[in-house]
Design a protein that fits this description.
The chain has one domain: Metal Binding Protein, Guanine Nucleotide Exchange Factor, Chain A, CATH 2.170.150. It has one helix and ten strands.
């Protein structure tokens, strides 16, 4: 599946090929912190299947619990998270689904780091719904 991503302000845009069956939700503490939400949804793309169309992401390198150094790419203007990858020898980009035009077609197929999941994040479907604020 071809996807098109862009940051909120439009300074950065990309195109990539992904396998929708690999979409995932991550509940790790880092994903909660980086997203500002209870979890983060992503889908991997091979480096050779990713094409930057516009702009240059800013990056931040964090050390994962495993000790691996993970590069976090984001828009330096609006802060939209774009992807994460290995800081050295990257083979895939874990693309952030929220910045993709096709996000509705990429429902997560599994959840990871569930031991860190916020307890209330498991029961949001039962909350009252309002279409617009």
């Amino acid at each position: 599946m071809i996807v098109h991503g862009a940051c909120h302000c439009g300074a950065i845009a990309y195109e990539a090929e992904v396998d929708p069956a690999r979409a995932v939700i991550c509940h790790c503490i880092d994903c909660q912190t980086f997203s500002g939400a209870a979890f983060r949804a992503s889908v991997p793309a091979k480096v050779e299947d990713f094409r930057l169309l516009k702009g240059t992401p800013r990056t931040y390198v964090k050390t994962a619990e495993s000790g691996n150094r993970r590069l976090q790419a984001f828009c330096g203007d609006c802060g939209s998270p774009l992807y994460a990858t290995d800081a050295v020898g990257a083979k895939t980009y874990n693309l952030r689904i929220g910045v993709m035009a096709e996000r509705a077609a990429l429902p997560p197929q599994r959840e990871i780091w569930c031991e860190s999941a916020l307890p209330w994040a498991r029961d949001v479907l039962s909350l009252p719904k309002i279409d617009k604020q």
